[in-house]
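hey so u asked for the seq, here:
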Amino acid sequence: MGQLLKEFSDPVVWDFPWERIQNPVELGKYLKERYHDGSKGKKVAAEKEKEKEKEKEKEKEKEKEKEKREKEKEKEKEKEKEKEKEKEKEKEKEKEKEKEKEKEKEKEKEKEKEKEKEKEKEKEKEKEKERRRRRRQRPRFSILSPFTPMLGT
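ran it, structure tokens below
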């Protein structure tokens, strides 16, 4: 009985592939593969456990590498976001510059309008001066004044 308990406490028994083995032929194949020599069975099981541990370690390393890659990708994404933000800032600056240029153009147009108004005022003054000059040159009283419409002057 002690021997049976010892055998059942062996991890190899607990690692039995119940899903795979459905009939006695498969069981025979499994036992031959695993325990073809009774003394080697425990060694084989220990080796398989070591292999499983190595595979687990490899999987852990792969996961670590994946995490590193993901972190690198996240960093790259952050860098791209920062670049996009910088581009947006530059665009905003350019828009502001364009607005300033437009304001300057408007100011120049207003100055030109002011100059035109000044010129028009000067022209009006000149016309007024010319009118005054002509009035002064006209004789106030004329002998023919009632007949001037007939003369055409």
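The chain has five helices and no strands. The radius of gyration is 54 Å.
lmk if thats what u needed
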